[in-house]
Each structure stands twice: as C-alpha cells, then as structure tokens.
Specification:
Elements lengths: L1 E7 L7 E7 L2 E7 L4 E5 L13 E3 L2 E3 L6 E3 L5 E3 L10 E2 L1 E4 L2 E6 L7
Antiparallel strand pairs: 1-11, 2-3, 3-4, 4-9, 5-6, 6-7, 7-8, 10-11
Length: about 110
C-alpha cells in the first residue's frame, strides 16, 4: 500500500467532491463536513462523474441519473438494485493539512 498526497484539505469544501486523476485512475474525494471519503469517480450505472454529484450525509447522488452511492462502502442505495456492483473505495487520511489517499502499489501513479 502506498499513501499519496492528493490535495490540501481546503480545496474540498464541506458537502462537495473533487475529482483527482492519479495515472489512469480517476478518484472522487468528498468532504461530508465531518470527514473525508474517496471512491472511484464512476457511477456503476452509466459511468457518471460522482465528484460532480450532490452530497447528503454520507451519500452522493450521481448527477446523471440520480443513483445514490454510499461514500463509506461504495454500495448502491438507490435504486434498490442489489445486483448493482459497489463502487471501489479508498482509505483517506488528513496529514498536516493534506489529504492522503491509500492505493495498492499497482494502482499508484508513477
């Protein structure tokens, strides 16, 4: 596992998300107001950009077709389709004012 600095915390206002490109991986990093969470920036429905979605609590609503994704687990909560694949999530920590994202070695950008 490798921790990568992605952005200063002030770049992500409360209840908003931002897209971060790490090599070929696009990650959406969210500020819920209480904590920071990250997941792959792609809705499992039709690939909508989750970073552009509306954040409510610990859920993001996809801006394209209103699918709701749990920011903590990546699970789809609306529609209630249990066959929908979860969105990949990533550990995030704050260190000295920077957000750090944890990736597997194979995922990390060079």
């Amino acid at each position: 596992m490798k921790w990568i600095a992605v952005t200063p915390i002030e770049n992500i206002p409360p209840r908003e998300g931002r897209s971060v490109q790490l090599g070929s991986l696009n990650v959406a990093v969210f500020n819920t107001g209480a904590r920071f969470l990250a997941l792959e920036n792609r809705c499992p429905h039709r690939g909508g950009p989750l970073a552009d979605g509306i954040v409510g609590g610990e859920v993001v609503t996809c801006p394209m077709h209103n699918w709701r994704i749990c920011l903590d687990s990546g699970a789809v909560s609306r529609p209630c389709d249990t066959s929908a694949p979860a969105v990949r999530t990533f550990p995030v920590i704050e260190r000295e004012g920077m957000l750090m994202l944890c990736l597997d070695e194979g995922q990390a950008a060079a």
